[in-house]
Records
---
Amino acid sequence: MEIYFDHASTTYVDERVKEAMDKYFSDEYGNPGSFNTVGLRAKNAMDESREKISKILNCTPQEVIFTGSGTESINLAIKGFAKANKNKGNHIITQKTEHEAVLETCNYLEKEEGFKVTYLDVDEYGLIIPDELEKAITNETILVSIMYANNEIGTVQNIKEISEICRKHKVKFHTDACQAAGYLDIDVQNLGIDLMSINGSKLYGPKGIGLLYARRGIMLKPIIHGGGQEFGLRSGTENVPYIVGMAKALEIAQREKDAEVTRLTNLRDYLINNIIDNIPKTFLNGHPSNRLPNNVNITFLDVEGEAIMLMMNEYGICASSGSACTSKSLDPSHVILGIGLPYEAAHGSIRFTLGKRTTKEGIDKLLNVLPGIIEYLRQASPVNLSLKDVGK
Amino acid sequence: MNSADVKSYDNTKSWFYTDTVKDHFFNPRNLVKKDDEINVKDYNGVGIVGAAQCGDMMKIWIKVDNNERIKELKWQTFGCASAIASTSMLSVIATENDGMKIEDALKIKPHDIVARLNGLPTRKFHCSVLGDKALRAAINDYFRRTGQNDRIIVEGERIIDKVLKITDKDIEEAVLDGADTFEKVQQRTKIGVQDKTCIPEVEQLIRFYKEKYFG
């Protein structure tokens, strides 16, 4: 059995979530849009789920739109908003270290729809500089999209500060909260958010379900057309079992959040400190404290990330890497480069993301094999950098 | 045959290595460890190619005997699993059967290394290219040390796109990375975006490199 340190990629489905969903495959299989009792029962299940989620988000049920993934939610938020509001302006602001779902959507709007996009730089920890956001806002700016917590380096943005700037300048604010929803505050009133994307597959819920919170009064245009489900914003028969699963997953995550955040933060810091203390020429990427409780991202000098991953895989340890060899381009991760690491250091970055099944024993097993793997690959490498060489 | 799966951050890409690649990655042949004392006097040619910034770097030491056979090839590689495995396989190819004659070693093509590894994913092809380049650099060094300067082979680069200063080497790399049409090479290198006069030559070079490496 592998030891899984890739929870930011996806999570297993919680048994309680699976149980809650089960009934809605073959027993309560109705189409919520059907005018009959079978359909009505499905509609009730869906409405209850929406209601439950709206309470967690502190919004109304009409502000919760179910989609097929986090990526789809982001597409609907950015593309749907841009298209519905282009008479107000053609400028969007985001940051360089966003997930591809945001970057590629913005890229599309630039290329195909005539929008202008500003990609803000981040500091060495991956935080945007609020002054720079404020300076970037023009009369043409309609939307700011800044992620809540980064998927690669775990840095948590100061969402309230960003939303206040947006409010002040009457610009709408979307946040990709896919990595954050399981661990952080997602009260949209408290945070002052207009649009927020969440998905099920990072929350111990099923894959293939996401949601978009869209504040009342926010104009969106659908990107999927058809029968007009989800308030006309996302056509297609509603995925009732997954909607039930999403609601259950979010409910469990928020209910158990405090204890799990404490447990994971302790394990995270134990892992970080042990790696840094026991393996020379390593350092942490991302913010040391404004950080997801489950994210560890480390650069190992003189070695290449994919080689480390393959070696770890041989010991049954699953992680992921920001090296060029694991991306479609020849460049290492845009996030690692975005926080200012030189290329030679960026190739050796590894992400370990913890979760419900992570135990201290599992981390100790990782800590047992990791120094040997790094030493082995360093012995085979002609590169011999120092921390000073890469500005650390 | 195919086993180890390597994943990327976002789970969208994965690829497979052959058992031979894995074997050479986990049990590299002729590797010289950083801590091992290597007596440089025992070797009469050294070659280095690549850079850590690019994600791949190799260093090769060769010992050539009086009959111009490569008796030993030692190496170190910074790079992914296929870069490490392909350098290891190169060291086997160059030294097996009493050692390869230099004139034959100069003819080793990336394709030969990949074939002996039972294949590499197309997008990993560029890793193995470094091995043959490093070996040629080491052989050139041997020529230099033995006063045979006339035999040194200069691998010159030629600028094709005059505006962006993109060379034939850049096109070669792009083709090796799987860019098999002009559009794909352009996407990767931006060649011909401004200097449109070079396009016919670029297309010709793409055909040439495709023929050379992929037959």
---
Amino acid sequence: MSIDEFLNRSGCSWINADGPQSDIVLTSRIRLARNLKDHLYPILFSDEEAQAVLTKVEQVVANPSPGSPLQGMEMVRMSALEPLQKQVLVEKHLISPNLAEESPHGACLISENEEISIMINEEDHIRIQCITSGLQLEKALEKAFLVDDELEKHLDYAFHEVRGYLTSCPTNVGTGLRASVMMHLPGLVMTRQMNQILPSLNQLGITVRGIYGEGSEAIGNIFQISNQITLGKSEEDIVRDLTTIVEQIIEQERSAREQIKKTAGVQLEDRIFRSLGVLLHSRIIESKEAAQCISDVRLGIDLGFISEISPAILNELLILTQPGIIQQHAGKTLSPFERDVRRATLIRERIRM
Amino acid sequence: MICQECGIRKATVHFTKIINGEKTEYHLCEVCAQGKSDTFINTFHSPNLSLNNLLAGFFNVEPKYPEPFETRQMTRCANCGMTFEQFLEVGKFGCAHCYDAFHEKLTPVLKRIQGGNWKHNGKIPRRTGGALQLRKKIDILKETLQNLVAKEEFEKAAEVRDEIRMYEKILQEGGDADVH
């Protein structure tokens, strides 16, 4: 299968990098946590009860009303998937590592364009997720609400007048909303401003993480910025506040890029083209090195040093160079060394187009 | 700013510790911050740090007057059997009823986690939350009514009063009006 075909079939709606501010913001993501009133939460429920939750959701999804966002979605149980298939879903951010690895009664529903995914029996009974390209949290929230309203027509949610949506963990209670934005911030990293920004963001109730969720370092200058507080503010306010902060970070990133271009023009150009050289010619490449080089090349495109490569390259290669997806493309399990060889080949083919 | 511990490296970790209202500020470099074992900042670098441990830290505040042992034993969710102590340990609720069972103890805990907030101010389920939406609407109208009376705009006040009565009637009948 050609890479083009593979990428098209990979379905990610955000791969084209065509959303607003998509030179810096890769994706905007909304997650809503919901639970069913009459069932114990996943931490305590029995096999039968887990099954009952799955059946309830399955019934709603099986009979969607006309025009419902649930149309065409099918429930897939985690137990029915191979480890590699689960890994691919995690790498595409469609399900959490927790659902893939630690939820024996877990299941997921994914829309055709992979914009909407619903996780069942993860930490909460239901987690609705909507991903959009670029900075458009409001649009993502709107879509997630449509799914939420549709499910709520048929399911009795655990809801409390004072506490809001009753989640399994008290860090999610109230709105159950986690809004997060994935950003490419090479300018702030290179000018060492990221370390100064982080503490002030924390004070504003904003969490910053590396690309693959909690505890991981930022690989390839990609950061995930999300709200920490879920209670006391309306969903619209949470999204608006986060958007304002992200817009400020975008401004700072832009001026950092300008600053580097001015003060370190040749060195920056050298770094960018060396990275392009590595991507164009290497035969073995580890994911970390690939991520750094891809980040440099994308910066080179944004700053006008490189013009013959599409800006979507960052998004495409970000997906394409991950271990699970490389193996899916190969159609078999590979050793780490074989993966590094395959990764180099995939990147070479893709970047020459 | 220079690290207040070693006085050599640049301070990159800043935090404020407040215990019983007494505020202490710390400005440390990463090395000293890591070495400081009497504060929670040590956990910044611990790979095994779980959210649960952090949560347990949030709850771990000695009450001024320790509760008698029997009362502590009593706080148990009748639906799923989880005790408040177990909740503190795992950092997760067993079921929706736990929120009611632990209600009194929960407000300070939520305030600590949720930046001082304890009351939901967002979406309400459309189908099951109909009565709640009505009650919220009535509350807002009552406030408007008071303002109008204070301003002696009695004609408008009468209209609002009628509207309140209408919604209260729907509420009494267990109705579900579209109040958007």
---
Amino acid sequence: MLQRLFFKNFHLAYRFDQWVRQRFTPMGMIILSGAIASGMFAVDTRRTLAYQLLMLAAVVVVLGMVAAPFFRARIQARRRLPRLATVGEGFEYTVALTNRGQRVEKGLFLSEALRTRPPTFEEFARTELPGGERMNWFDRYVGYPRWAWLMNRNRGARVAAFALPDLLPGAETPVRARLTPTRRGYLRFAGFSLLRPDPLGIFNARVRLKQAESLLVLPKTYEMPALSLPGNRRYQRGGVALASSVGDSQEFMSLREYRPGDPTRHIHWRSWARLGEPVVKEFQDEFFVRQALILDTFMGHRGSRRFEEAVSVAASLARNLSGRESLVDLAFVGDKSYYFTAGRGVAQTERLLEILACVDVCMDQSFDALPRVVMEHAARLSSCTCVLLEWDEARQRLVEALNALGVPVRVFVLQSSDVNEKLDTGPMAAQAHRLHALQVGQVEAGLLAAASAEDSTSPVPLATQGAA
Amino acid sequence: MSSVAVRTVAAPAAGVGFNYPPMLLGAAVLLWGWHTGALLYAVPMALVLEGARWFPWSLALSDRDFERLSDGTTLLMLVLVVYQFDQHGVRGVFPVLRWMPTVVLVLVLGQVFTTRKNIKLSALFLSVRRAERRGQLEQVPVLDIRHPFFVLCLVSASAGELRSPAFFPLLIVLLAWAFWPIRPRRYPVILWLLAMLAVGGGGYVASKGLIELRRAVEPVLMEWALEYFRHRRDPFRSHTAIGEIGKLKLSDRIVMRVRPQNTLSHPSLLRQASYRRFSNNIWLAGAAKFEELTPEGGGTRWILQDVRGTPERRVGISTYLIRGKGILGVPNGTHEIRDLNVEELHRNPLGALKAVEGPDLVEFTAVYDPARSVDGTPQEAELAMPQEYREVIHQVADELSLGGLPPLSVVQRLHDYFIDGFQYSLEGATRTRLTLPLVTFLKESRRGHCEYFASATVLLLRAAGIPARYASGYSIQEYSEVEQAYVVRRRHAHSWALAYIDGRWQDVDTTPPGWIELEAADAPWWEGTYDLLSWLWYRFTRWRLTDTAGESNDWILWLVFPLVAVLIWRLYRRGELTRRPSTNRNSRLVGRPQEESGFQLIAARLHAAGYPRREGETLAAWFNRLQQTQGVVGAAEVQASILPLHYRYRFDPAGLGPDEFQRLRRDVESWLAQYPLAKA
């Protein structure tokens, strides 16, 4: 009950904190801190002259606040955002400001107003702060650091007020703004805050400009070398290749250079004669090897870095596995499946990244909900990459079932940064080189190591790839 | 420990790289030095601080170095605090405030002599440091340490003993100096000047107003606070709770401490005041004017009655005074007060002792003889009977056959009467008829608290022809092993009768003896903790009021060593936890602007060659596009080796080690040399 009482006051404290940060200029914050510091010693006016400093600071602040309501500005603002952004990568965009007034507006500042949804008590109670287990008992019990972390996460980006150039009357002035998304998902823009400092530069008067908009932030991805593909040598052909006829067969798509292992009957002899090196016919169904991606989202609480890293790994794999050789056309995220039937390449990958951008922890169901969904699509699986949060019995059973279907499987297991246990191979005993443990905080190094491990143990030479 | 590298850099042009108003910090330091009498220190401090802008060298201090500077500053602060409190007691906070700029100077110099414009808050505050290590901070806040140092100089200066009238105008000058460079261009200068005038005028008026407000409010607040928290005996009247309905409950606050000095026994009652007339449930002293006593023996010894050759019992008593005044509780027969450190002691004919102009806590020795009485002889009022009680009192006296009995027998019979037939209770009488509460007590309920018993006893003694007074004070019952003294709580407040028998006033307490246990049963479960805190406060108050002129409480200095040892152990224990091979924080390069990795040179070359990065396109997507779609030479190499390192440099909380950073720089230079990239 005490926690609920604290919780009810957090929003008030947070709003006050945000109000102070936005309305007081850096010099204003100095004056405010001076007022507080001198206030501690100002009570006894016989002992110190701190009361003079306190009164001066108080008058400065009051004068600034008194001037604030008289700020009027007829300014419109419109932003031009990119279509997508990525977590942790700042980007610049244009804000077009139109001064509808009659005079030049000088010395103004602009700040983005991001819609920040306060968490419910249930969300708050079920979120674990990263590293929270190492906090002192008071902070853990009261929970304000957890609240502040949730609010910052819900806000989704770091924004800072920036100075505007002089805005001429009747003119449109474009300015460059910068924003760094701090979490994936949708950033909801409510509008802008137009700020004007008082004559002493202490307190900002504020006018809100409404312009609602959304921006999808994709998950952070890691650069990694192309992984050797299980099932690379499996060709799935939807139709009969007419080896002797180029252009006649509906399945025959194009020509490409010969790669070791290609059937000799696909060699296009005429092109070889002309080019001097072997060329094979490329069929529509042959070209794409279907990759399925499974992302485990079953966790008991929110706020886990492990989960975010799992999403990032899934996103990295979605990009990595989608190339000229293969396509992730089937994804299992939580208890839902996604089948991409149209398009390929960047568009399909982006679609999958958009799904991953919005994925949330599945707290209400157990992991057993996922194998059912996977098995429903078993016929479509050619190979499968799993990104798991645990390596427990339920998850091992899923991998075992996939192995029983003859589906080549690669498994990534995310571990907390303080866990460094070697995984028991279990159902991956026969292909232990495709079972990888990734530690939070060292994921990129883990992915590089995984790629190296698979490269060195792959029985099939790598096909020539466009990527390095 | 990371080495502090010193390298020669070109001195920045005046104003470049320093957005702090020139000389402002030095002026603030000089103001501090002048107003606190530390000009000898302030002048070199100001010269060093302002001279940094022309100093040709700079220090390359890492975050870890600032952490060590901050920890060292904390240690210095601790030593300063302990030393000043040792010298000045609780008032040592003001010398600490006055000298703080000298302690914090080290940190400020650390910043002004580097190329950094600010310091990470994790270097200064342990909580931020811990949050950073837990990965809870997306971005560690930074602070320009000069700002709080400027504020500190002004606040410290205000604590100076000079109290010069020039301080206020100088404050305004410094504020104007700070505000001028940041004034918004939107407003004309005249408006800024008017605003500063308004600040000066308003600040002056507000300061004067604050002083007047303090003068008006302080006495009222003091009165209210002390009335609420302290018990006060009125020697002229005692408002009883006779007749009140409800439970009488006094607090468990310890108000006195008693230590018998030369005898194993202790007095059972400490009397503060006595009264003669009873009217409307109020006991009044009547005409009992206080007269000042003349001290002897250095002004701490007060003779109440000159007695010689009598056995002397002594008891030490500690009690709190309210605003330096209070009524002292002493045993019956007290004829001398020793070691009482007050300016004046007054006594009235009824034996009340009033101390005037003393400290918050007084400790004195009461010398008493239980067989002696130093109070005045009885007056007519001590035989008077209130009209409203005459009938019932005489009726009870007749029932007890008090008439004609020797006085001691009367006392004994009254003892037996009340103890056998009455019950102690904190509950007030439930009045079912319009009867006097004392009548209800005697005839119906036969239960009540000590005021009932005392009042009834006084009246019955008078009915028996024995002069009697109503006395109030405290009962001594509880011994504290922790304090090694008898503790007297407010709930031990007691009333009893005084009977004049055999030429002296004697205590007659007819309250059934179980009242102490009854009161104690109501004690809260936290009483033990409360008593401990009370004892600590008592010890602190004693220490605080100890005369330290010419001597110091050196024992407190010994606190420094274990405290410093604990602090050092904690600092380096944390250092041990951070010394992991993979996170050598001494030399991690984290989160620097991307210009420093050199990657922007590659981006610039590609842009110039006609391969710009699209709006909103991530670096990874850009190079993927360049490599796969546009076949740009060199893009694959960037993707494979340079870009991962650049990403880790910018975003990985663990950052890059120095070797990796050097490798990144080399790879960038090698790539630039290898791929000139003509314009597409």
---
Amino acid sequence: MIEQLPPTRRLPTARRYAARRQLEELVSSRWAPRRRRRFILGIAIFAVVGSAATGITLLRSSPVTDRTTARCYTTAAVGSGETFSGTTIGVLGAPGSTGQVDNAIANCSDLWRQGFLLQGKSGMQRPSPNTSNPVPPLVACTLPSGIAGVFPGDQSTCTQLGLPLAGQ
Amino acid sequence: MEDFSQLPDEELWARAASHDGGAFGELFERHADTVYNHCFRRTASWAVAEDLTSVVFLEAWRRRRQVQFHGESVLPWLLAVANNAIRNSDRSFRRYRRLLAKLPRPVAIPDQSEEAIGRVDDERTMRNVLQAFERLSPQDQEIVSLCDWTGLGYEEAALALDVPIGTVRSRLSRARARLREQLGQTVVSTDTNKDESMEGES
């Protein structure tokens, strides 16, 4: 029968060093690995949800079918019929040409910059010479008539107005 | 770098709880060998004892709000954590498998050094001891290993086992008698004098 226990031994040096270092790093970190993983998971979920929301928004876009005219709005309101805050821009080229409204946002931006459009004002304004005016963020939605409506705002503005984003 | 060697466990623990890694490193340095040998005696494997030692300190950090001190020493509580880790070793290893995988593995080389040969002999010896020891109830195993093998006093063992001191005395006395039966005439202890004197107190 065994009478003596084996002698005590020291934890091997390499293991002692590595284990101590690992513990020191763990303790120094204010975020436990599990909490860190949860945070990363949260970010991932946020990204996925964000991407999905973007995808849904894109799916909800609708092509502009009438490119002969477009509307530059000065408020985020559709108005009724021909009554709205802003102005209508027309075609520069031959009938059927899409020269001006293909990039409705760029053209409306120019009108804002040159001072022809002012927040909340209907129609074209008389700009002050040699001044550059602020251009608000603009978004193009497709109006029920199939033309593009360029509003001050972002993608959520189209949703709020019940309009699809203007598709390419 | 701050010198932690003069600070008591309780002070180191308080600093560690404030995310001072160096303070926890000092606690590890101070108690790792005791935990390591305790785990070896319960498992008869130096390799398993290495992993368990890491698990004990990782688990101690996870349960840091439940820490208890005996005087200024955290060792009895660490051994309680060790007993728990040994009892639930599968779950413990699963919980910390990623961290354990980053540590250097025990070297299983045909090493003919005295140390390596000694470790192999230790394991053989300990396996034989455990054959008799494991016939005891888990409670008896814990009390004998804490008091007789690792050298805790009654009060420290009471803290580690979360029982009154009187229970430690009576349980230890019974456990020793049972182990004596299992081993024939011999009581396995690191300190036979202490064994006799403690038995007298029970």
